[in-house]
Amino acid sequence: MASDEQSRSAEPSLVRPYTLTAGRTDSGVDLALEAPVGLVTPPRPSQWPGNDVRAQILDLCADRPSVAEIAAHLSLPLGVARVLVGDLVVQGYVRVHATLGEAGTADERRELIGRTLRGLRAL
Predict the structure, then answer these.
(1) Are 57 and 83 in contact (CB under 8 A)?
(2) What does the alpha-carbon distance between residue 115 and residue 44 come to, in Å, rounded to a whole number?
(3) How many other C-beta atoms are found inside a 10 Å radius of the C-beta of residue 1?
(4) Beta partners for 37?
(5) Based on CB atoms within 10 Å of each CB, which residue in 53, 73, 81, 114 is the most buried?
(6) What is the DSSP letter of 37?
C-alpha cells in the first residue's frame, strides 16, 4: 500500500506553476536561496488538506530546509517556491531564519554550502 502512495506522490503535478501563485512572481518577502525556513512557535494550525502544496511546505519546514531545498523536494520552480514561502511568512505560518553572518564558524559555513548545493542539484 505504501508503494502505491509513493508512486502517486512521485507523479508530476498537472497544475501549472503559475496557478499556484495566481500569476505572481514576487513574494513580497526577501528570501535568499539558502535561507532556512522554520515553523513559527507555537505552530499555527493550517486550513489546507495534506495534499495542498502549502501543507506540504509546512511539513517540510519542521526540519528547517532552505528555500532551494523546499523547491527541490516539491519539484517546484524556485520562483514559485519563493512566492509560496513568502505567503506563508506573511500569513504567520513560517519564519525565515537568518543565514550565517560574520560570526559563523567554518563548520557552519560548510554545512550551509553543502545544503545549498544539495538543494540546487535536486532542482
Answers:
(1) no
(2) 27
(3) 5
(4) 96
(5) 81
(6) E
Strand, helix or coil at 38? strand
Q: Where are the beta strands (DSSP E) in the chain?
A: 37-39, 94-96
pLDDT tens for 69-117 read 899 898 888 888 999 999 999 999 999 987 766 667 888 778 777 777 7
**How far is residue 107's CA from residue 98's CA, in Å, rounded to a whole number?**
16
Q: Are 85 and 38 in contact (CB under 8 A)?
A: no
User: Could you read off the pLDDT of 26-78 as tens digits, one per residue?
Assistant: 667 888 888 889 999 888 888 888 788 999 999 999 999 988 889 989 888 88
Side chain identity at residue 34, one-letter code: E
CB 68 within 8 A of CB 120: yes
d(CA 21, CA 24): 5
